[in-house]
Amino acid sequence: MRKVGVALLGLGVVGGGTYKTITEHREFYQKTQNLDLVVESVLECDEEKIKALGVEEEKVASNIAEVVMNPDVNIVVECIGGTEAAREYVLAALRAGKTVVTSNKLLYAKHSEELERVAKRYNAGLHLEASCMGGVPVVRTLMSGLQANVITSFVGIVNGTTNYILSELSEQRGTFEEILEKVHKIGIAEADEEYDLEGYDAVYKLSILASLSFQTKIPVEKIYREGITRITEEDFRCAKDLGYCIKLLAIGKRREDSVEVRVHPALVPKEHPLAGVNGSYNAMFLTGDSVGDVLLSGRGAGALPSGSAIVSDVLFAANHYEDISTAFKHPEIANKNVKVITDFSSKYFLRFQIEGTTSKVLSLFTQKGVAIQKFIHRESEGELLVITHETKESVIKSVIAKIEERQLAKTESLLRVI
Amino acid sequence: MRKVGVALLGLGVVGGGTYKTITEHREFYQKTQNLDLVVESVLECDEEKIKALGVEEEKVASNIAEVVMNPDVNIVVECIGGTEAAREYVLAALRAGKTVVTSNKLLYAKHSEELERVAKRYNAGLHLEASCMGGVPVVRTLMSGLQANVITSFVGIVNGTTNYILSELSEQRGTFEEILEKVHKIGIAEADEEYDLEGYDAVYKLSILASLSFQTKIPVEKIYREGITRITEEDFRCAKDLGYCIKLLAIGKRREDSVEVRVHPALVPKEHPLAGVNGSYNAMFLTGDSVGDVLLSGRGAGALPSGSAIVSDVLFAANHYEDISTAFKHPEIANKNVKVITDFSSKYFLRFQIEGTTSKVLSLFTQKGVAIQKFIHRESEGELLVITHETKESVIKSVIAKIEERQLAKTESLLRVI
């Protein structure tokens, strides 16, 4: 039986989960994969973590050189996070011809071109399933399950923390602050709150997912981003009344000669497959020109779900060393400057505090050519709720400007609708 | 650019969809896969079908020998169906060292051992994504996305025809006969009605899915099978009242030294992810020891969804000729005689017409050690609805026997609950 040696860089949550997954399944992989998968080396400066997992002392490396020079190491798993040491270490591993498996979305979103170039040059593999949706095998599905399709669009729930918060808020299980505290307590939030709440994490993931789906590099800077902190309790109440829930979405659309890529909260109809994806679950709803709609969902984070993704990548790599880059068969197609649409089209939900008359407000929509799908006038609250048909972002903003200029109403909420 | 020649055996619905998918995406695959994928040969006796697709005359083969001897053919796609000609042709292709991609669940469920042995001997690939859930890449996910996991259980909706019928019945869109007629009219039913309605199609798919999930051959004869024809309108009404819908499920469970494999209708709680899978959609809800719960859903049949699965297999095979058998890394583990549990455990839904007193009926459950989760006594109709906690099939049957023996009630329905 062929022995496959793994090095783990970092033994935090993901690295620890990977260590456990590999060691506890050794016999299972011998039987089902015909491979003897063994952790041969770990690089971790926190001795507590090493001790807690029971890693044998002789397997603890003192620096990256020791790891990549180790002839027993075939595959290097990077779970350090960040882009400084992680980039240096991954490049060192690739240059030593080792296949790399990473869970590092930041590293990949920022440095994929460099990493892929080096991987190709040194004939080393580079796999990144765990970087996008934890245990949900969305990368493998895009690469090897639906690759016969032109992916025309996708809508994803890719950040478990915000999805948990929005689910709890929607069920009125506390105020935003209370739920945020709970999220920290159960350990599903990043120390840097903004990273989750303002949609940065989702943007990195979207950059990778859109690049894979549309076969062209989508830089993170070109992705529209809006977090969940501006959503009010009133928005949840209104959404529910209208038959919607609110989700933070990562959306990608393929257009004729351009793409649309955006992260923002949106109203999702109760009957949409994504509406039932609650708590810390992630999901991807994608459309291919042959297959039609496909939904994937599962746990988007956590030690063992991430371990599942990483070790599945490791096993795939061990069986396909020739498959040197999962991300692009053809890196050169990635270099063209893709046009990213900024004035995208969407349906919109608006909540107004009426100051003039409702009919005057509504007529401004019509004047600008915006069709209204439904509206509710709550006379006693002086509130007007509007859901439009699809229209351009620039047009909806000009309608709002006009309404406010004429002091017909105060715009209390503007949210997109899918 | 490497040219990859494909032969299509059969140009029916699936074969035609595959032909279209390949020809319409030629340029796309050149760009994204760095492959020139071309249909080099077709074998189809119906000239109308050949003409309708516009296949060039010189590509039409007159017999299988001509196809497998053609040096331009690298991959043979079998879409004939059945097990006679299909088996012979697939074996001929494998013996000629051609990789085979098939959508034929019957062939695979019945002859997988022979096919895999021959594939291995002649170093030819064998891929079967399209045989299970149409466009949903469940096979690839089990093989290359979640293979780090011990799959502990799965529950699937794998037959689109019955799912469509059950969805329509549940929405009261007609009688069973009317809906069945509609199903034939829109062309999603097999000519042989029993094949779908009595669960045979689901059994073949379950045999493949359970074999892949549990890494052991599950013969079709060992799978418990019950179709949807005994479900009454009253069952739908009661299920709805209790907060359930009814689905035909394919269930696999890994036990200590055995497996459970069964196809039968069951009540599914409204909040379960499978409850929202309606119409001709298929879905797989599976649980892995690391990843937790994962849901995959999409179109389970149709020309283009099946084309998506077949061509994704073709592209995967073209990039991984060394991956000779998708089904088992280790065919020898498949030969042990797995124990299939026949007296499985489940929750149950029972509908009784009360002839004695309700309390006497209920006390018989208690006497046999069956815990009741809820019951509703409809006094005016003399009806008692019971949902039990998990218990063995043999136990619930003995409870029913006792109730009928004592003439306490008439059992009008017995359905399992997940």
Structure description:
Two copies of one chain form a homodimer. In chain A, a hairpin with a 4-residue loop joins strand 14 and strand 15 (about 385-390). The first copy, chain A, contains 16 helices and 17 strands. With about 425 residues, chain A is α/β, with parallel strands linked by helices. In chain A, the strands form two sheets. In chain A, strands 6, 7, 8, 9, 10, 11, 12, 13, 14, 15, 16 and 17 form a twelve-stranded mixed β-sheet that branches. A five-stranded parallel β-sheet of chain A has the order 2-1-3-4-5, sandwiched between helices. Chains A and B meet through helix 2, helix 8, strand 11 and helix 14 of A and helix 2, helix 8, strand 11 and helix 14 of B. Strand 11 (about 290-300) of chain A pairs antiparallel with strand 11 (about 290-300) of chain B.
Keywords:
homodimer; 418 residues; alpha/beta; Rossmann fold; Dihydrodipicolinate Reductase, domain 2; Alpha-Beta Plaits; 3 domains; 12-stranded mixed β-sheet; 5-stranded parallel β-sheet; elongated
Please describe the topology of this protein.
The structure is a homodimer of 418-residue chains.
Chain A: E1 2-9, H1 13-24, H2 26-33, E2 35-43, H3 47-53, H4 64-69, E3 75-78, H5 85-95, E4 99-102, H6 105-121, E5 126-127, H7 130-133, H8 138-144, E6 151-157, H9 160-170, H10 176-185, H11 193-197, H12 200-214, E7 224-225, H13 233-242, E8 244-254, E9 258-269, E10 281-288, E11 292-299, H14 303-319, E12 339-340, E13 345-354, H15 358-367, E14 372-378, E15 383-388, E16 391-392, H16 393-405, E17 409-417
Parallel strand pairs in A: 1-2, 1-3, 3-4, 4-5, 7-9, 9-12, 9-17
Antiparallel strand pairs in A: 6-8, 6-10, 8-9, 10-11, 13-15, 13-16, 13-17, 14-15
Helix pairs in contact in A: 1-14, 5-6, 6-12, 9-10
